[in-house]
Amino acid sequence: MIRVLIADDHHVVRRGLLFFLKTQKDIEIVGEAKNGEEAVTLASSLKPDVILMDLVMPEVDGIEATRRIMDMGLACKVLILTSFSDQDHVIPAIRAGAAGYQLKDVEPDQLIASIHAVHRGESQLHPKVTSHVMSHLTKGGGNNRSLHEELTKRELEVLGEISKGKSNKEIASSLFITEKTVKTHVSNILAKLELADRTQAALYAVKHGIG
User: Are 148 and 204 a contacting pair, CB within 8 Å?
Assistant: First the structure.
């Protein structure tokens, strides 16, 4: 049996996935999470084989949740299931440790196949996602000299504020955005720049004249 945890903030989506996956003889739903924070907690306690992870969720988004779960060293695989196929979502999710990335319009049979594939240790990417990954690699995405070129204008502004030693609360006040939004931007910045913490981000910003 493949033990699956569903993480999605939409109740209807969770219910639909639950009812559908229950029809599969070799899949067992062990839990449901309505945000990234719950996903991390349940992953730790339930130790599922595969987590179906939405990206845009309250409290903690899917990218940060995936990163935390991978940092815990759990044996589970994360399969992103989202409506977003743009590079700003795809690349950070893959960098965070997701084993697969599927869109919510995927055919039911393909979703089951993807769950089985990531459980076997294989990567599963939707065709639209694959093109982004290949484009990223072709541009030399692993080269530190060009990583910050992937940051959005707002992320560059946040990075500049980080280089000044400001806290999330201070950055939120400076840029007239919520502290929660700042936290999301910081997570995306660290993922895109392949950095471990804010200190490294600040050093990166200074080195590259950002801020």
Answer: yes
